[in-house]
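To the wet lab folks,

You asked to see what we're planning to order before we commit. Fair enough. Below is the target structure as tokens, and below that is the sequence we designed to fit it. If anything looks off to you, flag it before the synthesis order goes out.
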């Protein structure tokens, strides 16, 4: 039994180590990208002959709190009105339908080409709505924004010009966060998303590896969508799915780190949970659907396949971390009861390099937003350990999502409730879309909170503190997730 535990524990450490190596390479790519001057050819939008027709799609489902803010913001987009169409793809089933209808009517009176498009059912969920709108879209290029996104006035002027290169199928922009400092939960989410949008997206794009359209704040060439097989609702992350299918068809993606598109982060942990579940399950579904095709494609370089493996299995790291965490307490006892394994535990210390790599990668992304002062470095250290503690606290919930994805269990697309919250004075507690559920996973998380409390006690009992920081982070992380989940 001891040997089996050590073998599984080692395998988990090795997977995390190779994942960290992929992140280190992305860091090096990111640093190289910062030195490169963008020499992309671009449309001259001062020349009317070069201005293409654009359709903006706004997929909505029961967005009572944010739809007015969204539509008023989109109406301010700076682009020749005769070359712009707006589709409000409304799958709503509540009172927001009438509100949207009224707002669209008002905007039409200003001369805006805007349509309110509804369906009889939500087949295919968001992917189905986008596909339906695409059938009648007039635009050569299709910009997509979720309901909580607030693109700046010049967004199209900054993105459309890159499509002069006929091989570019997508231009994706970086997400910003209008309520980053609302709470510890929003700060943690911003920390994670900044890492993805600054280091990972830039690093993959510079290295010519596959990246993903992030579901919103990006713009597609209509021809690319159709050539890749159109939107499909057979995974929960239709954006990742279409991205991989498009790149397998040799379409290029352009990522614009310096074009920020502000959006709202979930402020309730139940909303964050539903979003995390969808993203993590969808990633696992996409690994199952697309990685085999990528692996077989002889035109795709080994480096791109290596990064795609960890890109699509990114969410599966939660399962690996959960296994590692659960086994860490038995490993602590094995270490103290079996002196003959001393050489092994000296060797295992090498894997601390994975933590160092993650530290450097996240710091590179953090400095883009917060600068490089000594004060910001201290804040980064605190946020780094807080983020990883809470991320490990989510590992049970996210591992269930990953397992469902790999095992092929289908589930509905659960939208993330929006709140229209941007300042500390805004409250979300009366949001009608919030559903407080006490699931089995919360019970498991509570049990693990006690379990890692025992792990901390064991450090004192055995006088061995080699895993104490790890167990403290797990204890804090599971405690945060459990106690935030059981209270409104």
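Sequence we intend to order:
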């Amino acid at each position: 039994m001891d040997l089996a535990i050590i073998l599984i524990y080692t395998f988990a450490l090795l997977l995390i180590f190779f994942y960290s190596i992929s992140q280190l390479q992305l860091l090096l790519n990111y640093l190289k990208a910062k030195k490169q001057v963008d020499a992309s050819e671009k449309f001259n939008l001062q020349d009317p002959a070069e201005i293409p027709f654009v359709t903006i799609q706004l997929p909505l489902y029961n967005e009572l709190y944010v739809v007015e803010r969204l539509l008023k913001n989109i109406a301010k987009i700076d682009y020749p009105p005769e070359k712009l169409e707006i589709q409000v793809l409304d799958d709503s089933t509540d009172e927001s339908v009438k509100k949207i209808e009224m707002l669209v009517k008002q905007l039409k009176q200003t001369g805006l080409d805007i349509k309110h498009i509804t369906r009889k059912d939500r087949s295919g969920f968001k992917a189905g709505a986008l596909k339906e709108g695409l059938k009648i879209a007039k635009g050569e290029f299709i910009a997509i924004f979720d309901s909580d996104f607030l693109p700046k006035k010049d967004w199209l002027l900054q993105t459309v010009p890159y499509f002069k290169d006929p091989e570019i199928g997508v231009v994706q922009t970086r997400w910003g966060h209008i309520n980053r400092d609302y709470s510890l939960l929003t700060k943690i989410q911003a920390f994670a998303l900044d890492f993805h949008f600054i280091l990972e997206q830039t690093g993959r794009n510079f290295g010519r590896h596959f990246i993903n359209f992030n579901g919103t704040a990006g713009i597609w060439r209509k021809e690319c969508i159709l050539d890749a097989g159109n939107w499909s609702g057979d995974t929960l992350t239709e954006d990742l799915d279409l991205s991989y299918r498009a790149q397998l068809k040799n379409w290029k993606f352009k990522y614009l780190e310096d074009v920020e598109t502000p959006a709202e982060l979930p402020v309730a942990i139940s909303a964050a949970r539903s979003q995390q579940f969808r993203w993590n399950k969808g990633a696992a579904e996409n690994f199952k659907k697309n990685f085999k095709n990528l692996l077989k494609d002889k035109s795709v370089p080994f480096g791109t396949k290596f990064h795609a493996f960890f890109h699509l299995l990114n969410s599966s790291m939660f399962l690996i971390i959960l296994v590692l965490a659960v086994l860490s307490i038995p490993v602590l006892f094995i270490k103290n009861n079996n002196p003959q394994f001393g050489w092994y535990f000296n060797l295992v210390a090498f894997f601390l390099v994975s933590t160092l790599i993650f530290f450097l990668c996240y710091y590179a992304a953090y400095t883009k937003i917060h600068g490089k002062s000594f004060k910001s470095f201290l804040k980064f250290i605190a946020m780094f350990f807080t983020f990883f503690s809470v991320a490990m606290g989510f590992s049970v919930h996210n591992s269930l999502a990953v397992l469902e994805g790999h095992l092929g269990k289908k589930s509905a697309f659960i939208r993330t409730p929006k709140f229209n919250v941007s300042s500390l004075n805004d409250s979300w507690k009366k949001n009608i879309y919030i559903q407080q559920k006490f699931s089995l996973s919360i019970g498991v998380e509570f049990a693990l909170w006690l379990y890692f409390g025992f792990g901390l006690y064991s450090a004192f009992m055995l006088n061995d503190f080699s895993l104490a920081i790890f167990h403290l982070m797990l204890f804090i992380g599971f405690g945060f997730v459990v106690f935030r989940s059981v209270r409104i």
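Structural context that might help your review: The radius of gyration is 23 Å. The chain has two domains: 2-29+315-420+430-485, 51-278.

Thanks,
Computational group
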